[in-house]
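Hey, quick one: can you model this chain's 3D structure?
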Amino acid sequence: DSVKNLLQREPNQTGIDGEKISPKNATFDNVEVDDGTWKFAGWDAKEKIFDKNNITFTGTWNFVPAVIEKIDNNTQKPDNYVEISFVSNSLKWDLKNTKTYFVNPAKNIAIDLPKIIAKTGYVFKNFTSENTNFSTTDGKIPANTFSSDVVFSAQFTRTVATAENKTIKLSGTIPNIEEFITNKNLLPVWATYSWKNGDSPVI
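Sure thing. Here's the predicted structure for all 203 residues.
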């Protein structure tokens, strides 16, 4: 109801039987709200025949959100919106390889950063972009930060192998290094291990 009160209305008209009546206003200005824009889409008819019963023209308003997630190529980018993409190497990220949003840069609204689930062997570090600098402490980016399209790339670090601190006395056969890796479950299945400098395990 609060939004309806913001929308412009067509003034009432009078007529005579058989007269063609058309709306006086072909369109209306957009109505801006915090999380998007209401746009007038048109009337249900260009004209109607007046008779002794009242006639009513019904207008349709469409809501365009300030942030629109691109689901597929059928998702349309509204005029004056910017495209914000979050991409990652699919070998390191278990979620959808790319998340893209169409954003109204005039709105003071936040975009949630994608939740990253790093694949085994990697730790998510942050998002970086070549054409903008930003930092966030709450996992959100203000939409009005950007005036042009931006691509953010997810950055990862390799998981470091840790080994049990244990003194080993070698007597002939060298023990299997994998027996001493304490975080093997966090490392990729294709990882191989070896002894370094006689006492330190490395991938």
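One thing worth noting: The chain has a mean pLDDT of 76.
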